[in-house]
Design goal:
Helix content is 77%, strand content 0%. By secondary structure, it is an all-alpha fold. The two termini are 15 Å apart. The radius of gyration is 22 Å and the shape is flat. α1 runs antiparallel to α3.
Length: 250
């Protein structure tokens, strides 16, 4: 009957540990399955990732390898991170499948859209960094190179920099999800978040200055989308709060 309280599935500690093991194993296998073909084309993958910098290098310059093993190991490591990136939806699905039985129906109704939104926003942040930020950033760096200095970047340093930027922009695009979670959990009210938007804007620029290279262009390119996503998160939070109120009334 609809009036009866919803019962959650229960299990022993051993059964939960066994299920956790199975979920982790499936996630690991998914990464390995994605890694095998990507590793075969690891050099091509590295060239694709390095293309925004290659296009902006001055004539006669190129990426360099300062270690004997870096021409092999750097693309190989990058292939693993690309495989993890590609398999992340399935990995997060395994996390969801493990957690979902412990959630009530109304909690699932909000948790699943937030999970899907967080995945899409993370990918959007990475794509924004690659297509919008990197060309502008590398063009700025190449144009400010002092006279007598040839810009020749080590491939390992470039990979570390790119992965860090991908992670930063991916997490930065999670702002709407964070705002919605803060509101739905009752930690902060939407009206309060709207009142302090000026302080939030300052904080976003400070965070962008820390996460991006020390130039105003990169900082602005990251801060502006973050603030727009913050406003979008406020709008989403208001809509989901109204949906929750209507559900409670029903």
């Amino acid at each position: 009957m609809s009036g009866e309280p919803e019962q959650l599935a229960e299990g022993t500690l051993i059964s939960h540990l066994l299920e956790l093991r199975d979920r982790l194993l499936r996630a690991f296998l998914a990464v390995i399955v994605a890694f095998v073909p990507i590793a075969f084309f690891s050099n091509e993958v590295f060239t694709l990732v390095a293309q925004p910098l290659i296009d902006k290098l001055p004539a006669g310059s190129s990426l360099i390898a300062t270690s004997v093993i870096s021409p092999f190991m750097t693309p190989f490591k990058l292939a693993f991170f690309v495989a993890l990136f590609a398999a992340m939806p399935y990995v997060l699905y395994q996390v969801w499948a493990f957690v979902a039985p412990g959630l009530y129906r109304h909690e699932k109704r909000f948790a699943l859209p937030l999970l899907v939104s967080s995945i899409i926003l993370f990918y959007a942040g990475v794509a924004f960094a690659y297509f919008a930020v990197f060309p502008v950033m590398f063009d700025f760096f190449a144009s400010t190179t002092p006279a007598g200095v040839r810009m020749m970047t080590d491939i390992t340093s470039y990979m570390d920099f790119v992965l860090t930027m991908f992670l930063c922009f991916g997490l930065a695009f999670e702002v709407p999800v964070i705002v919605v979670l803060l509101v739905l959990t009752g930690l902060v009210k939407v009206d309060k978040l709207a009142e302090i938007r000026g302080y939030v804007l300052i904080g976003i620029f400070v965070i962008a200055a820390i996460l991006t290279p020390p130039d105003a262009i990169s900082q602005t390119i990251m801060a502006v989308p973050m603030y727009l996503l913050y406003e979008g998160g406020l709008l989403m939070a208001r809509l989901m709060q109204r949906m929750r109120s209507k559900t409670a009334e029903a």
